[in-house]
Design a protein that fits this description.
The complex is a heterodimer of chains A (145) and B (145). Chain A is mainly α. Chain A folds into 2 domains: 57 residues; 73 residues, Orthogonal Bundle (Arc Repressor Mutant, subunit A). Chain A is elongated. The N and C termini of chain A lie far apart (90 Å). Chain B has 145 residues and is mainly α. Chain B has a single domain, classed as Arc Repressor Mutant, subunit A, CATH 1.10.10. Chain B contains 8 helices and 2 strands, in the order H-H-H-E-E-H-H-H-H-H. In chain B, strand 1 and strand 2 form a beta hairpin. Chain B is globular and about 50 Å long. Chains A and B meet through helix 5, strand 1 and strand 2 of A and helix 1 and helix 8 of B.
């Protein structure tokens, strides 16, 4: 590019660069203003919440309403699976998560790990499996009877 | 790491089976070995305490000189009785008829030997006490039928 063309192009672009820089500053100012307004709004909301007698108060969370019972049929199914694979589960014992993983690896995604856990607890309660030991993190390791 | 070895985690039968499985050739096992098998690697006091209670109930004997535990004859008898498969017949009993079964059980509780009575009472506690693993796992709020 020849020098006169370069000079002319610079003459045209210079005000645009200046304009872009000014816009950047304006955006920065607007964002700072917006952040201030949001902070003000949060403060006011906190005051309003504190003054509202119907607002939820901090405290212990209500007990879960998802307390459900496992069916005997599902527990029996898990026990059948354990017996079918007794060679695998007779040794060091098994826990719910491991059993769920093993079943999942075989394509048996149901029942879920939570259900498997409940099934094992029910089977233990019924004396059809036994609690062998507690794992490091407190997990329950069961064994076949 | 678990600190307590309560009935509400490990049933008496769980402990009895653990001892039966891991005794040496003479039929004895140390507190340390039981603790290791149960996952109580650091603190063995809980195991010693529970074993001492079960000794009072007549489930275990303690050889003071060797500081080793073994099952009593009564304890062995309870484990041997598990082989008879009576629970399978009980599982077929309809819910309504369980009241009669319970009446029979309570009668045996009153008139049977002290060891059996104690184990029956503790098994009932395990299955029904609100902080029992069995109770928690099987749903706190049972449906009324």
């Amino acid at each position: 590019m020849s020098d006169p063309v370069k000079v002319e192009l610079e003459r045209i672009l210079a005000p645009l660069r200046k304009q872009a820089a000014e816009l950047d500053k304006e955006i920065e100012r607007a964002e700072a203003l917006l952040a201030d307004k949001r902070e003000d709004r949060r403060r006011i909301e906190r005051v309003l919440r504190a003054a509202d007698p119907n607002a939820p108060r901090p405290g212990p969370r209500p007990k879960s309403s998802h307390d459900w019972e496992i069916s005997q049929a599902t527990a029996d199914k898990i026990l059948d699976y354990l017996k079918e694979h007794a060679d695998r589960y007779n040794g060091d014992g098994f826990h719910a998560t491991g059993l769920f993983r093993d079943r999942k690896a075989e394509g048996l995604r149901q029942p879920s790990d939570a259900t498997v856990n409940k099934a094992l607890r029910l089977l233990h309660q019924q004396g059809r499996i036994r609690l062998v030991r507690r794992g490091t993190g407190g997990s329950r390791i069961y064994g076949l009877v | 790491m678990p600190k307590h070895l309560t009935l509400y985690d490990f049933r008496d039968l769980d402990l009895m089976l653990t001892v039966a499985e891991h005794v040496n050739d003479d039929g004895f096992i140390s507190t340390d070995d039981i603790a290791t098998e149960l996952g109580f690697d650091d603190d063995h006091r809980a195991v010693g305490s529970r074993m001492a209670w079960m000794r009072r109930y007549g489930v275990f004997d303690y050889d003071e000189s060797r500081k080793l535990w073994r099952l009593t004859r009564g304890g062995e008898r309870v484990l041997e009785a598990r082989q008879l498969g009576a629970t399978q017949e009980l599982a077929a009993v309809p819910d309504g008829a369980l009241v009669d079964v319970m009446a029979h059980v309570t009668s045996r509780y009153r008139h049977g030997d002290a060891l059996t009575a104690t184990l029956l009472r503790r098994e009932f506690l395990f299955g029904t006490k609100p902080n029992s693993a069995a109770y928690r796992g099987d749903g706190r709020r049972r449906r009324r039928r």
